[in-house]
Amino acid sequence: RWKMAALFSATAVILAAASEWYSRMVVNELWITPTPTNTVGGVLDRLASPIDVIDAVAGQAWYLLASSLLFVGVGAIEVLRAASGRARGPLHRVDALVLVALTLPLLALSATFVSGRDRSDQLVYGRYNDGVVWPLIAIGVAWLITTARSEPRRTQVWIVGGLSVLTLELGFLLQQFHGPSFDRTWGLGAMISGISPLAPSRSQLSVAVIGVISVAIFLGLVVVALRPPAKTAAVVLVAGLVVLLGVGAVRTHEALGRRLNGGQESAKAVEQIAEFVPEGSTLGVRFIPDFYRPSVPASQQEAIALFYEWALPQFEFRIDRGSDDVGPYVF
């Protein structure tokens, strides 16, 4: 066991060092100094505002619960029970501890990184966590299908009732504290696509209502699992979930819009630029501030420019300020 632990630890250190080396290499090649927001120091600085971090934890916890129909919460409870040696299901203690060690730091990093923001989607951010919590969702669903019936009634009530109350309470508190932000806009819908099929409106982010809908569906699934219904009712339930999935797919596509294949489009543009512009030419980049309402937000303009500079090392990139000799090729 200790040899395996040493092997894993050494592998982690090597991968971390390789990641740091590659990141520094990328940064050193960029012609614009990246914002310190995306650095280790920038994240640690956010810990100086613990209230903001707690606020972000509450928002992201609500998102994970609502978007997963509370199954993230069920899975988290089962993993913690297994880690403490009290699980009734087949999840082993070592597996649970590994899952906690791999998942918790990523969730904490997401909450810390997005803390102190006031855009609607950032208040309940989900994109960084969506790809991390699938094991918890799977364990939560497995509990409902295989273990829930054998649990004591008191445990069933605590798990189902506790998660339902927590989801509703978080949604209510978020609505109370951040209602004006939620009422203005959804922000970037692609960042919180998990709740898009549950939203009654695409103009306002009604977290309290979304929480109620998610809890209602969850309770319906619990009733079905504990008291299997007639065949007709089961068919209706499955059909309803398929419709929900379809609505989510359509709304996610709408949220992403023309940026659905943004990476592929940028790669094609690189090929066209390389063919059209003579090698050795200077490429100018002129950034348009957001108050002019550009078709591409300022933050994305910088990201795209950095990508072009990285992918086209045969050209010199310069910022076009409107009064210098940059040109004739200008973004």
List the main descriptive attributes of the protein structure presented here.
331 residues, mainly alpha, two-stranded parallel sheet, 13 helices, 66% helix, 2% strand, globular
Task: Describe the protein's architecture and organization.
By secondary structure, this protein is mostly helical. Helix content is 66%, strand content 2%. Strands 1-2 form a two-stranded parallel ribbon. Helix 13 links the parallel strand 1 (282-285) and strand 2. The longest helix has 32 residues, at 153-184. The termini are far apart.
Topology:
Layout lengths: L1 H28 L10 H7 L3 H18 L3 H13 L9 H22 L5 H4 L3 H4 L3 H14 L5 H32 L22 H20 L4 H26 L5 H15 L5 E4 L12 H14 L4 E4 L12
Question: How would you sum up this structure in a few lines?
Answer:
The chain is mainly alpha-helical and about 325 residues long.
Mean pLDDT: 85
N-C termini distance? 57 Å
Count of alpha and pi helical runs: 13
Percent in helix: 55-70%
Strand order of the largest sheet: 1-2
Please tell me how large the radius of gyration is: 24 Å
Element string (H = helix, E = strand): HHHHHHHHHHHHEHE
Gross morphology: globular
Largest sheet: 2 strands, parallel
Strand elements, count: 2
Q: How large a portion of the residues is in β-strands, by DSSP E?
A: under 5%
Question: How does the helix and strand content classify structurally?
Answer: mainly alpha
Low-confidence stretches: none
